[in-house]
Design brief:
UDP-N-acetylmuramoyl-L-alanine:D-glutamate ligase; Protein-Tyrosine Phosphatase, Chain A; 2 domains; six-stranded mixed beta sheet
Amino acid sequence: MLHTYKEALAWIHSRLRLGVKPGLERMRWMLARLENPEQNLHAIHVGGTNGKGSTVTYLRSILNEAGYQVGTFTSPYIEQFNERISVNGKPVDNEDIVVLANVVKPLAEELEQTELGSPSEFEVITVMAFYYFAYIRPVDFAVFEVGLGGRYDSTNVIQPIASLITNVGMDHMQILGHSIEEIAYQKAGIIKPGTPIFTTAQNKQALAVLKMEAVGQKAPFYQLGKDFFIKDYQPVEKGEQFTYQSPSMVLKKLKLSLLGRHQTENAAAALAVLTYLQDSEQMSIQTAAIRSGIQKAFWPGRLECLSEHPTIFIDGAHNVEGLQAFKSAVETHFPGKKIKIVFSALKDKDLRDMFAIINSMNAELYLTEFDFPRATAAEELKKQSGNAAAQCNEDWKNLIRELVLTAKAEDIVAITGSLYFISEIKPFLIEVIQSRPQDTAQD
């Protein structure tokens, strides 16, 4: 029996040693023991390489504005573990984490004695989310973000009312495959028989795989640029603006608070799903709720501005596609300006291609490392960077403190790379920003 939040968290995290364990057998075994809570949910399933979390938050925010109770399951967390399981954007309480852990722990121990073996941390958390949304805090809709891939991901036991795949890029190749087609095959695994699938994928090879899966599953297929559209895009102060167009709806001058043109794609995908569900009378959403929900949507760690004078922001650009979006957003919103970039990444990333993007920017590069099993050492990042001017500092706290405290009002500092890095540094970064002398901000 787990009695405290600290004990519950320690037990959950102890499952990390088991690593990634693809497959759905352990999930189905545990859920059957709990009378299949996932079958009681009106779920929307979100997969893809980048943009999953942002798309989840657009869906949640619009549905909240329309008056619905919405559960979300996301990963990884940025500020606190509990945010992975949230209702209406509010993370689950510590007390409920203890309750949920005590529900799953005896099942995990029993499962460990079978030929299926112990469940992983992600499997445990996924079961907790299903149980919470179905039995403890029932919701009108539950939005589940795929953890890794899709086909064999723990979330793929649901029968959603709609599925969504953002883009498909080269990431997690050691698990998902070394070609875009292989990775797309894994992503396409969330497509279910007869269930509509929406995608913002642009790569032709990836699209061919997704379409083939949809045909095989007899699933209606809706594609950005063919079935729903982004028109009249333009950056605006502290956000983006665009027009959304589909056969059943045209919404002009929609405003986003999240930065980056790629966010218009994530928002459009969310709108395509919700308008479909409204047209099929599975929900009712007024235009005003769409406009306010899409503008209020906020997702931590994605081009998130923590200070304006100087400009300091964080962005979990953890792969090639993420860094391309990061570069595009920086060059759009800060044209011609030189920025300071702090970067750290995991060992399994395509570092050379990532550095090719960073090195093409008008930026001073600072490389560092953080305490995580798969984190790349700062010196190794320096070797991989091919950037002789890049500065290397193993102590990220000292590096960030120096950059923030010496920054002038007109400076731009961006901390980017691994989401795990962003999660670790954010609380400290906020403290340092708040400790800046008031007159420093006016230099």
